[in-house]
Amino acid sequence: MKNNTSAPACKDCLMGCKSIFNSLSEDELNKLTFDKNCNVYKKGSTIFHEGNRIHYFYCINSGIVKMYKTGIEGKDQIVAFAKPGDIIGYRSILSKEAACTTAKAIEDVTVCAIPSESLFQLVENNNKFTMDLMQLACRELGEANQFLTDIAQKSVRERLAEVLVKLKEIFNIDNDGFLRVSLTREELASLVGTATESVIRLLSEFKADKYIELNGRKVKILNEERLRKLSNYY
Hints:
Blueprint: E1 2-5, H1 10-13, H2 26-35, E2 37-41, E3 46-48, E4 56-62, E5 65-70, E6 76-82, E7 87-88, H3 90-95, E8 102-105, E9 109-115, H4 116-125, H5 127-153, H6 156-171, H7 185-192, H8 196-208, E10 212-215, E11 218-221, H9 224-231
Antiparallel strand pairs: 1-2, 2-9, 3-8, 4-7, 4-9, 5-6, 5-8, 10-11
Helix pairs in contact: 4-5, 6-7, 6-9, 7-8
């Protein structure tokens, strides 16, 4: 479910987070604010579906969105998360192809939808923005390639350790030291690329080894150095 809300000014968003729009001029930011519309999606709502044609790309104003692909047996594989300042859907716009992933809110999110024409205008007229966009796409491709390597070469235990460290890097921690993102065991299993039962068992082992602390869905990393060493992730 989504609800329309007043669109925040793009220049105001840039004050609170790192964004690809940092290279835009004031006039370009004002035009972007005029062109876009803003919606609030409740937790569990879908922003766009894999396989559908989309005519907007999206910038996350607040909250967290998960990006996932659905396998032939209906099993979801999370491929990325989007947090405030991140953009999603832009590759499908540029390639003029159907969306290659589904985007779903894992908590209440505010998302700005920007018409595809606005993206093409920025690409044509702002060289710095175009270069930043290319670098973003290359980073995401590199992360996808690294995931494939990890699936092939690392054990489930190693992959879970790496995922926990990466979640801390991406989302940081709250005032109590817990990760700022709260995932179900099924979502963690999807990130790791394994069965939910395996993740539940390994989390219990990590807790017993005092690598982490658990409080429901919340995870606190107690020994990051050990997790990094276990996963060979530095």
